[in-house]
Each structure stands twice: as structure tokens, then as C-alpha cells.
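Colleagues,

Please find the record for the two-part complex below.
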Amino acid sequence: MSTPPAPNPSPAVVTRFAPSPTGYLHIGGARTALFNWLYAKARGGKFLLRIEDTDRERSTEAAVQAIFDGLNWLGLEADETPIFQFSRVERHREVVEELLQRGGAYRDWMTPEELQVERDAAKAEGRRFRSPWRDRGPDEAMPNRPYAVRFKGPLEGETLVDDLVQGEVRWKNKDLDDLVIARSDGTPTYNFAVVVDDHDMGVTHVIRGDDHLNNAARQSLIYEALGWAKPRFAHIPLIHGPDGAKLSKRHGAQAVGDYAEMGYLPEAMRNYLARLGWAHGDDEIFSDEQAIQWFDIADVGRAPARLDFDKLAHVNGHWMRLADDARLAELTVQALERKGAVADRAETLDRLTRAMPVLKDRAKTLVELADPAAAFVLKQRPLALDDKTLAALDAETRARLQRLLARLQLFKSWDVFALETELKAFAGDEGVGMGKIGPGLRGALAGGSPAPDLAKTLAALGRDESLGRLADALSSDA
RNA sequence: GGUCCCUUCGUCUAUCGGUUAGGACACCAGAUUUUCAAUCUGGGAAGAGGGGUUCGACUCCCCUAGGGACUGCCA
């Protein structure tokens, strides 16, 4: 028998993110963590982290670190020290005993072979598998032989999960199996440990992937058998790849670390990920503060969303333009360093910082910023001039640029606006259009690399470097 | 096979019975132009199919089709 979830006795919201440390932090998991974090913040509650490491075979130290690193990068910090599930096995065993005593569970001595046979038979008959030990008396127990403990679920009635995202979902209890809650080695299984831990941690809202929706029914039954108040459940859809299939290796980037490496900013990832499957009217670009103010788990959609890298890049571009120049310069140096493209760190940082106001409008990711956008800034004098530039630098143009050089050497204010005015004035004095000046000057300053408007390029390079490059080009052989 | 979930432009979504079905990304065109971007303006683009309910369905119900999850002594 199931009753609707009891109203929460405690008004304070407690959410948790509970990944198992068997690999990197998946981008889908990151979004789950984000929703938990947002909901907790939105309600003035707490966001907790629990590492589900009860599978000793597959859990690794490196994976634990990857989860911490990923969440840290994303800026999703837990409000309390993370809990390792395995450290709570004693407590889990204790609750298993309690459930056994309450008659809510039973010992099962089936061998793997027997299990296989029974399960196949049940499947063939279209019914749920039930262990024969469910109905055997204590006199049939097999002392000195290891046993698993199974939950003794009701055979009749139905279980209702009033999900915050999926709505009311019902199961007939006869369709729910008696899941193993303790393995024959005494360790607890996931579905049981989760219930005990969520209860003990005071979790009020379980927000997780909808691959757990079926588990919610079984967990719900366990809560009832234990006489515990249930949390509210919210099962959010999984993220799919651009082709609509479940995110997998062939889609490439799955780990949040991949996104950091691709040059996305954490604030952009939060914005994009929040918007994936959730909306607040027509708002597309929003700050953390706005997201927290607007977020409600009930507004999350029920259909799986596909990852769209174009849109991610667009959102990232917005946040790059808003980001601090020194920070972007530092991150760009790091991106360059990963490619082994930094000789003099201090100088590179210095050049990038000065050019950043101009550069950041031109790139959508840090990687783009590092490579095409900033390439002209990082070149060393004297620049190698490409054929196109050489062709533009005919005798007439050289003479003209020589006059420009002389004029700029006397020019005081080296900011974009003033430089732009000065260039136009020069063109006017020369009695020619910018078309007669641009190509040669651009080539001299950028050496054939793509670069911004001329005034911006001059500003980005700085006075000394600009004049030096121009002088270099004019003294080069034709 | 069984149980459960999902289905609005190519993509992310708004709409919560009455709208010319809105926005964003992407795309196309134009503007700008000294390169490449960026930016601005405009444009094309959607309710899976079939039944109901209703004066009126994208919105509610049913069926079908198509996706997906689970069906472990994994989590």
C-alpha cells in the first residue's frame, strides 16, 4: 500500500548530488548537480555531495578526484563535507537488521545458478521473479552459508510517486521485484544505501536522472517499510548527443573536463546547462543570481534535450565579453601552454592582457582566443610578411605609410577612438580612401594573420610594438 | 517480452482551451567593411499520425507510431 508522500516535516530544503566514482564527471551528471545546487540555493537550503562508492571493484581514487575537480571547476561547491557511502556500511547493516526484524526483508540462500533458472522462467511467463525464500520459515534457514537479503515488497496494491518533474507515476506492486538490499558478502546495494543515506542526511529533495525513475518506486517502498518520511523526488531527463542518441563515447565530449579544455567558461556552462531542459520565459542569457531567483525544479521539461555546441559557443561568447580581461588573459595563456606554445609566460600574459579588450569580442571560446584571435598579437618582430602584404607594399604605399609612421610617432593618445580619428584624418590629408592605406598597414601590423579593425589592432599591439612593426615592414626588401 | 517515461521550427524552448504558435542558436539575404570575425536589419522554418471531449484544441482523454529508461548480489 502506498500513500502520497508525507509533507516534509522540516521546511529547510536539502538536496544532494550522489555520483558513483567509476569514471570522469559526466556532463549529464554535471547538469544534475547544477539543478540540485540551483534548487537548494533558490530555496535557501543546502546542497550536499555524497560519493556512492559501495561498488569497491569499480570505484577509484582518481574518479573521486575527477568528480571534485569537475564540480569545483563548475563552481558547484557542496555546503558540507562530502560523505563517502562506503564509510557508512555499519549503519547500512544495522538498518538491514532492523528491516529483517520488522519482517520487511528476508534472507535468501539461492545460488546464482538457481537464480538464473528462476529468473528466466519468470520472464518467460511474463511475471515478476520472486525468490522461494520469501515464504520459507526460519526452520529452513541454512546456517553457516552466506545469504543475500531481499526486500519483501507488497504483492498487492500500487505505489505512487508524485514526482516534481514527471508528475504522478504509478506502479502495480506485483510488478515490482524483491530487490537485494544486502549482498551475500554483507555489503549493502545501491537502492538500499541510497534510502538510508538520504534519510540520515536529511535530504528533502532527490533530484536525479530519470534513469532512476523506476528505482524511486522501490525506494519509496523501502521508506514505507522503515516507517520513514519520504523525500520529494524529481527525475530529470538525460542529456542526449546532437543526433538524439544517448550521450556516448562517439559523441566526444562527455566529461566536464573536456569542456574546460575546449575553452568554455564555467559561468557559460552553468548558463547553458541550466537552459538545457529548463526555461524561464524567453530568457537565454542569465547570471547565477537570476537563475537562482527564477529556478524551480517543477519547470524542468520531461523530454531529453540534445547538446547543441553552436548554442553553447554562442552563450560562451557572451560570457567571454563580460569576463575580466586579466582573467581571460591568464586562461588564454593556460590554453596556449597546453599546446606548448608559450616561450615567455610573462611577456605573453602582458601582451594578451593589453590586447584583451579588443580580442575578446572576436572569439567564442578560449581556444579560439588563443589561436586565431590572438595570433597577430603574439608574433615576434620582425614579422614575416606574406605575399599579399608584400604585393600591397608598392613604392607609393611605402611612401605613404612612411608619412603615417612619422605622424603616429608624434601621436600621443593611443586609444582606439583617437586612433580611428587619426587614421581617417590621415587618409583625408592624403586625399585617398582607406583602401589605399588599409591592406599595407594591416599586413605590416599583423603579417597576414586575421586582425581586428586597424585602430583596434594598433591599440591591441600598443604604441611601441605597432610603430616597431610598421618600421620593420617599411625597411624590409620589396 | 514486461513495467515506466517522453514526442512544438534542424536544435533548445514559450504557450498552462481562444495567439498571425513567441524567443534563442543555427541557416539564408541585406547593411557595414581595410582582412577575418563580430555587430545590426530582414527572411524561411514547428504542434508525429489517428480518433474522441468541447462552441473552440499544441494544450484534456484514448489508440497507433517512433524514441528512451529499467528489468543485476552495478550505480
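The mean pLDDT of chain A is 91.

Comments are welcome before we finalize the supplementary table.
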